[in-house]
Amino acid sequence: MPVRVGSLVNGHPYIEILVSPDGEKSAKQTALIDTGFSGFISIPIESAKLMGLKAHATALYTLANGKTSSPVPLAHGYACLEGDPFVQGLFSISEHASTVVGMDFLIRCGKVLVIAPNGIVTMDAAEFEASLKHSSALGNEATAKAPTKAKPNL
Amino acid sequence: MPKELVRATPSCQDIAERGEAIYGEKYRAELEKTSNGRFIAINVTNGDATLADTGEDAIRLALEKDPSGFFHLMRVGHKAAFEAGWYMSCAR
């Protein structure tokens, strides 16, 4: 069933997520959805410190202008939408002020994202696939039942 | 404690530079023929590489081999491991 999980703020989509260093203790964060970000979650360094995330690695990013970023620290952590089980992923620890979720988060959570004018809606990817098949089957049935138009006599 | 036993924590810049150099010297030629698009975690302390289909898997498996290692994550055949969206590219 589709669930409303966020809202548009100044035209940007935000959702509420839970983040955790260990899959147990967690904190709620408001996160910007950035579908141009291929990673899991980018979190401000202050939030990472409060969570107790420990960086194990570094990575580079291709920026929107095609240039390559400076190295960014990475840490293992857990995150989910409220009410869902935690999924594990790599947190990028950034100097930006906002938490950002990327495509890897949506994929790992198994969610379809709908950005509507009055809110952000998610639904399970499996449920979405099933509903697509169902509506496609209904469409085929309707086409089969529809009376064929008589050709005009010219 | 003797100075040689103290393991200094390298900076992000040091880890990334070392990782990129090890990849270029030991792995690039072979992996770019066989493993384009996969993720590789380079352990900069011993030069080992861990290859996986996702960045998360590569780092997790690399940490299992060496829990105290420092790793640089790369994507074979790409300039960088990840793509940043507009916010991460432009926001201050």
Q: What does this protein look like?
A:
The complex is a heterodimer of chains A (154) and B (92). Chain A is of the alpha+beta class and 154 residues long. Chain A has one domain (3-145): Cathepsin D, subunit A, domain 1 (Beta Barrel). Chain A contains three helices and eleven strands; from the N terminus they run ββββαβββββαββα. The mean pLDDT of chain A is 88. Chain B is an alpha+beta fold. Chain B contains three helices and four strands, in the order αββαββα. The longest helix of chain B has 23 residues, at 12-34. The radius of gyration of chain B is 15 Å and the shape is globular. Mean pLDDT of chain B is 90; it is low at 1-6. The A-B interface holds A 32, 34-40, 42, 55-65, 68-74, 76, 88-90, 92, 94, 96-98, 100, 102, 104 and B 12-13, 15-16, 19, 41, 54-56, 59-60, 62-63, 69-74, 78-92.
Keywords:
heterodimer, A: 154 residues, Cathepsin D, subunit A, domain 1, 44% strand, elongated, B: alpha+beta, three-stranded antiparallel beta sheet, 42% helix, globular, disordered N terminus
Describe the main β-sheet of chain B briefly: 3 strands, antiparallel
Largest pleated sheet of chain A: 6 strands, mixed, barrel
How is the CATH topology of chain A named? Cathepsin D, subunit A, domain 1
Principal-axis shape of chain A: elongated
* Class from helix and strand fractions of chain A: alpha+beta
CATH structural class of chain A:
Mainly Beta
Proportion of beta-strand residues of chain A: 35-45%
How many runs of DSSP E, i.e. beta strands of chain B? 4
- Distance N to C terminus of chain B: 42 Å
The CATH superfamily of chain A is Acid Proteases
The rounded Rg of chain B comes to: 15 Å
Overall morphology of chain B: globular
Percent of residues in helices of chain A comes to 10-25%
DSSP helix fraction of chain B: 40-55%
The arrangement of helices and strands of chain B along the chain is HEEHEEH
Strand content of chain B: 15-25%
Q: What is the annotated CATH architecture of chain A?
A: Beta Barrel
